[in-house]
Design a protein that fits this description.
The protein is an alpha/beta fold and 466 residues long. The chain folds into two domains: 230 residues, Rossmann fold (3-Layer(aba) Sandwich), CATH 3.40.50.300; 226 residues, 3-Layer(aba) Sandwich (Rossmann fold), CATH 3.40.50. Keywords: ATP-binding, Cell membrane, Membrane, Nucleotide-binding, Translocase, Transport.
């Protein structure tokens, strides 16, 4: 059993900044699964990077204490030896990939662990079969959905067979069925002697796997154990749907193909105004592609119109004033360097200045905890902080149709509820058409009006009627 611990560790990002952790002690308990459940921006990802030796090597400084593996300072252990004992899944799966396909990436990982060449093929096949990812092994990683990328990154971590595995939001974009399968695999590995520490804002489904839950105390000097309620671990309530209201965004005989793969058979629908809808379905079925088609970013077949007007063939910015899209990757949507500059740009260009006044935008910024981050670079924010800024930026642009692709993936429950309140208020006041995707359903489904399920290339209404 590997012994990994922090001893009186004090860490800060820069000499002129206050320490994030102050004389923090923590010892990883072997062959257990622990959940790190702390608010956004509290340092979960930094904590993980310290545990696996990425910090302070690649950022920040330790001014007291340190991280020790088998009583040896972690920085004195060569990287490939560390990786054999400690593996980490990043919050952003793209940060793990440096090869074109999952098969190539797995080969790269195993070669860096100095595994003999004659063992690599068999090991790759085993891990791909265990995670049911064989069909994805030769596909370009850049073409995978967010959830598929997350599963591919998890495969690379598990392939190292590290004794301690750190998972940072491992299921943020993973559909519920795949999440349940992966949780069962983690339970199997734990029973075989693995140790897991998982940061996850959605603990539903963890009841068989979890041993401990931790949160930081007020000054980040201790990790405190606490008990999660049964309701927190339980599955979300089914979505009740209301009759659909009239709307202006309409498609007729809309179908969608990517490459040689049919994603949507010909379908007719008008999305309602003033209601919040959920687009659900397994990873890779085409939810993000459907959103991109509705924004005319990719080709589609059939007719698409807003208030009877077809999308202009040229001058695509005119259609963008009708249909707004929140991407899964926050940094791909930012236009400015700082939080203040980003929101100032939104305030200048909002299409609903009568609703998104400076006062309302200021209130929303406060409610989302972005006020104190005004002069921070958007690229130095935590994943959750970036997502809240992105959400507010898209929402306050005020397009009459909003398509939100996994807007809550990296958010804690408090932040989700704040976002939903802002979204519902603006939707009802402006009679906005809102359709979102979210594999996380806890605390969300009770606020939604209807569900569309994309399954077997068909869209159908889900949930049950009130």
């Amino acid at each position: 059993m590997v012994k990994l611990e922090l001893r009186e560790l004090t860490f800060s990002y820069a000499p002129d900044r206050p320490p994030l952790f102050k004389k923090l002690d923590f010892c990883v308990e072997p062959q257990t699964c622990s959940l790190l459940a702390t608010p956004l921006g509290s340092g979960k990802s930094t904590f993980f990077k310290l545990l696996c030796g990425l910090y302070p090597q690649f950022g920040g400084q330790i001014t007291n204490g340190g991280v020790f593996l088998e009583d040896q300072p972690l920085e004195q252990i060569v990287p490939f030896e560390r990786a054999k004992r400690i593996g980490m899944l990043f919050q952003d799966p793209d940060k793990r990939f440096c090869m074109a396909t999952l098969d190539q990436q797995l080969t790269f990982v195993l070669e860096n662990l100095q595994l003999p060449a004659d063992q690599i093929t068999a090991k790759k096949q085993r891990i791909l079969q265990e995670l049911e990812l064989t069909s994805l092994k030769d596909r370009q990683l850049s073409t995978l959905s967010g959830g598929q990328k997350q599963q591919a990154a998890l495969a690379c971590v598990l392939a190292t067979e590290s004794e301690i595995i750190l998972l940072d939001e491992p299921f943020a974009n993973v559909d519920p069925t795949s999440k349940n399968k992966l949780l069962k695999l983690l339970l199997k590995l734990k029973n075989q002697g693995k140790t897991f520490i998982i940061a996850d804002h959605d603990p539903s489904g963890y009841q068989d796997l979890l041993d401990f839950a931790y949160r930081f105390n007020a000054d980040h000097s201790r990790l405190i154990k606490f008990n999660l309620s049964r309701s927190t671990l339980a599955s979300p309530v089914p979505l009740r749907w209301q009759p659909l209201k009239p709307g202006k965004l309409t498609w007729k005989q809309l179908s969608l193909t990517r490459g040689n793969k049919l994603l949507l058979k010909p379908h007719d629908l008008t999305l309602p105004k003033g209601q919040l809808g959920l687009l659900s379905g397994a990873n890779g079925v085409g939810k993000s592609s459907l959103f991109q088609a509705l924004c005319t970013l990719i080709p589609y077949q059939g007719n698409l119109s807003y208030a009877g007007q077809r999308p202009p063939r040229f001058f695509k910015q005119r259609w963008a004033k009708k249909v707004g899209l929140m991407l899964q990757e926050a940094t791909a949507q930012f236009s400015c360097a700082t939080v203040q500059e980003e929101l100032a740009l939104v305030s200048q260009n909002t299409l609903a200045p009568h609703y998104w006044t400076k006062e309302r935008l200021f209130y929303a910024k406060q409610a989302l905890g972005l006020t104190e981050l005004a002069h921070h670079s958007v690229y130095q924010l935590s994943g959750g902080q970036q997502q809240k800024l992105q959400f507010l930026s898209v929402l306050a642009m005020g397009q009459p149709v909003l398509l939100l692709d996994e807007p809550f993936a990296n958010l804690d429950q408090a932040s989700i509820q704040t976002c939903l309140t802002l979204l519902k208020d603006s939707c009802h006041a402006e009679q906005t058409t809102v359709l979102l995707t979210s594999h996380q359903r806890v605390g969300i489904t009770e606020h939604l009006d209807y569900e569309l399920i994309l399954e077997e290339q068909t869209l159908k209404l889900g949930g049950y009627q009130t």
